[in-house]
Amino acid sequence: MKKTSTFKYQVPPLYLWYDRDCGLGHKLRCQTLGNEWLRRGGIVHFSGEPTVPAVIVFDDYSGVDADRALWQCANLTVVIEDRPLADLITCDVLLNQNYGAEKLRYNTTGRMLLGAQYFMLRDDYCTLNVKEKIEVFDADAQDRKLDAGRFARTVASAEVIVCSAGCTAHEALYLKKTMLLRLSAPNQLVPYEALINDGYALPENSDSERRARSDKSYISKVKNQNIIDGKGVERVVDVILEEWERKVWSGND
Fold first, then answer.
1. Which long-range contacts (C-beta less than 8 Å, at least 24 apart) are formed by 218-225?
2. E strands, 7-71, where?
3. What is the pLDDT of residues 73-108, one digit of tens each?
């Protein structure tokens, strides 16, 4: 069923600017955001520059804050950031959808959306009906061009997920999978430490797979968690549209 916007103004165009040289997660979360925008009746662009006031999403590591500030003058700007930065981030909305991000304090002009309640779960995970089972799935060892739907089904079929502390870890969290984490990049440090310290994942090591299969207290905690409910992208878009409406109103004052 198509979800319509409840806002007074027409849903503005959405421009998604992500760094194609960064990890696959940047592309996938932008696509997930774009899909929800389409469901609200908006238009989505993955390239080009706005010719009318629009929402611009910056999801990259190479952006210059002064450049983003210029775009903010006529548009609503959203920055997706998963690093714990101290530098000023000029935007209208700042999003860090990772587990544990709510503990961070950003120097930003924007409204902050921090933590796994804003995790933008891909549509592939919301309609899974998987019957087959496999013991262990190492997500990082897969071909980066693996079909997204097939990847999601494989994650859902595995008893134990081995992965980096990025998007796949949060997808495994949604599916309530026992999880062995590896730290693959500095920007993953916050969710890596938070998931392990809070008992929702184990660090990948020589005996962690055995514990993931046999530690009943760990398995019980994982199975009973409900940290990611699949509604994160709706919350994100709701806030963006709220801020858009606020900006339109203030411009008409």
1. 218/178, 219/178, 222/176, 222/177, 222/178, 222/179, 223/176, 225/173, 225/176, 225/200
2. 14-18, 44-45, 55-59
3. 999 999 999 999 989 999 999 999 999 999 999 999
